[in-house]
Amino acid sequence: MPHGKPAGVACVQLLPDYRCALFGQPERPAFCVSLRPSEDMCGTSRVEALVYLNRLEKATM
Prior knowledge:
This protein is mainly α. It is globular. The model has no long low-confidence stretch (mean pLDDT 87). The chain has one domain. The relative contact order is 0.13. It has 3 helices and no strands.
């Protein structure tokens, strides 16, 4: 997303199975490359992970 990704909007590179279409590719944005998942970020379910990521997005707007 050349002008950034608004909070709450899914990335255009998100595949139907929730994987990144650019993972491991040289054109993957620097922000994504620098994002290091942690146990806290992932939580115990997809819902917990999305809540964490939503908070992170809002904090960095």
